[in-house]
Amino acid sequence: MSSTNTGPSMAPTSTDSTKRRWRDIALLGALFAFVIAGLAGLAAATGWEETKAQLMKLTWQQISLLLALSLVNYLFRGARWHLFARRLGLPTTLGQDLRHFLGGFAMSVTPGRVGELIRMRWLKRETGWAVERTAPLVLMDRASDLAVMALILAGGIALSAGGIAMAMPVAVLALLAAFVATRPSLLAACVTWTYRLIGRLPRLMGRARMAARSLTVFTNAPVLIAALFLGLIGWIAEGYAFHILMVWMGADIGLAKAVAIFTFSTLAGGLTGAPGGVGGAEAAMVALLSLEGVPLEVSIPATAVIRLTTLWFAIGIGLLIFPLAEAKSQAAAA
Length: 334
Description:
The protein has 15 helices and no strands.
């Protein structure tokens, strides 16, 4: 019976996996070229010499610190993933959960980051748990990120002034979405309402309702507080990286404002549904920095560097770990 349920899609051939890997690499290359072309166009409009001078200010030690702060984010959020996995009852170790979490970053460039759901496929192979049982883990991870980023954004706006104040509606929407996503009965009611509205996909909606109700296991104060703490440390670390980068480039806009701009841009990029938020996040960051009086010859290289040391660094880590995670899961399923 189990072999019938898995089917070809759950056990792809090596040829299919190779084709998908090359397709993903091609998508990565295209997205990277898109970002570089866009930023290069802006840099050309403001003068290459000024942009180059700003980039040359950075040392390898400074770049290493930015990468280290990003790594803090990934590891703390990976620890949160492990916390949720244990609470759900998954028989996985911390090493397994970190491998799944970090390896999933390789699929961050899929629209809406849905490719990261490959973590559930790895869990199915290694634990035998169906996707419906592990779906709450992914939902809680996303909801926690929304809640944490909304709190950080709201706090940053409260502690600063200026153009970033316009970001408050985004913070409110993110917090509302996180609230709904972590309330089993409310989320199940939303799924039911959606089904009645569209009148289609009964099996998918049924599974969504089942996943929503299973979130009850996470409605535990100590677990939610610990998850909030881990997420806050992780995302503030990257926001602080953006702050010190601006200081190094001679455009100190203040810690609170820098963290708020970074957080808002990340959320804005995600709301576009574009792979990895590419395009939207960069545009929002440059625009908000311009509102704060930061010249383009500073905002453009700052945006390029912070995106390379956050999003693209995460994707690089994911590409390194992905083959190991795939091999380990296939070996467990054999």
